[in-house]
Amino acid sequence: MHDGKGIEPAPVAPVTMNTARISLLLSEQPNRIAIYRPRVGADLSVFDPASVQIIQGFRPDYDAFSDAGFEVRIEPEGEFDLAIVAVPRSKTEARALIADAASRASMVVVDGQKTDGIDSIARDIKKRGGNVRVESKSHGKAIAFEGGDFSDWEHKGPLGSVEGFETRLGVFSADRIDKGSQLLLEALPEKLPSIIADLGAGWGYLSRHILERDGVKALHLVEAEHAALECAKANVTDPRATFHWADATRFDPKLRFDGVIMNPPFHTTRAADPALGQAFISAAARLLAPHGQLWLVANRQLPYEVALSERFSFVEKIADAGGFKVLYAKRPLRTRA
Q1: Which of 35, 111, 175, 243 is buried most, with the most CB atoms less than 10 Å from its CB?
Q2: Both 97 and 194 in a single domain?
Q3: Same domain for 32 and 140?
Q4: What is the mean pLDDT of the chain?
């Protein structure tokens, strides 16, 4: 990741992988290691970067590990002596990662916190894995196993259609239309500005509908999760759309937009983190032209009005329903770099 002029640091993701737990399960340093979905801040100093392949499709984490000297891939490639799975929030995704790891490595370690559902995953692994060992430490567990049949956990490709949209494992709201996005769409005017960015575009629900509005000449979809962006490319086929695999909070396209529309993320774990949305607001203000307009949706309790007032000349709430609110802002304030 780069620190461009005027770009604020992105919020730091919480660490869900504990290498101290993992190290207790290893008698020696394996020659070839795959680490699935580690997050920024994970301490990987116990491993030789030359022996590690990191599998990560989330752009901020991908860039951070690449900058640290690791080989980083969106999809795993090859076979390994050891595969480590950092448990994601979705149990279905966790199972798919474990199945892939088991197909590639002679030994697998699955690591996560109790809040990630690691206890139930440990029980499931014990029913089918061989030589299962468990280390508990710091409110979490690392489970090592060898062999076992995990083929029924495999899950590749699209999940299917959600009202005509393709989704995949690892994307936000993979099985339904997000209610916040629905409210935001209903609050948008029939005519929109010419050049628009959809920050955190996800799998393209808002973007496809934005392109149906009058006035839109170009739409830039900015999404950090590679799997979601691949879905968006399948769901949004309008030639006016341009796709960017990028961290929206650091996105620097060398142009200014007439409008920004966004449903910013508000958590990386189950706990809300308003700093994520605030970073998106800062990015929107930086990316907009002086006449630019912003529409965003957020959970009703998130305090985004202050951040908007600090960065825009005009702020208004234009919708409030179902636990969500839609905020409109225009004319970003310019601050000295």
Answers
A1: 35
A2: no
A3: yes
A4: 89
Q: What's the pLDDT at 243?
A: 98
Helix (H, G, I), strand (E, B) or coil at 91: helix
Q: How far is C-alpha 253 from the geometric centre of its chain's CA atoms?
A: 20
* CA-to-CA separations, 148 to 128, 161, 301, in angstroms, rounded: 5, 32, 46
pLDDT tens-digit map of 103-159: 999 999 999 999 889 999 999 999 988 899 999 988 899 999 999 999 999 876 666
Task: Judge contact between 38 and 61, C-beta under 8 A.
Answer: yes
Give the Cα separation of 32 and 107 in Å (integer). 11
Distance CA(97)–CA(112), nearest Å, equals 13
Give the containing element (helix H, strand E) for 327: strand 324-332
Which pLDDT tens digit goes with each residue over 111-120? 999 988 999 9
Cα dihedral 55, 58, 64, 67 in deg (nearest 10): 60
Phi, psi of 277 (to 5 degrees): -65, -35
pTM, entire model = 0.88
The boundaries of the domain holding residue 88 are 19-153
Between the two ends of the chain, the Cα-to-Cα distance in Å is 19
Written as one letter, the residue type at 241 is: A
Amino acid identity, residue 120? Answer: S
Please tell me the distance from the alpha carbon of residue 337 to that of residue 320, in angstroms, as a whole number.
35
Domain boundary among 153, 176, 204: 153
SS3 147: coil
Q: Are residues 167 and 304 in the same domain?
A: yes
Check whether residue 225 and residue 127 sit in a common domain.
no
Find, among 152, 134, 264, 147, the residue nearest to 198 by Cα: 264
* pLDDT tens-digit readout, 249-279: 999 998 999 999 999 986 554 455 678 899 9
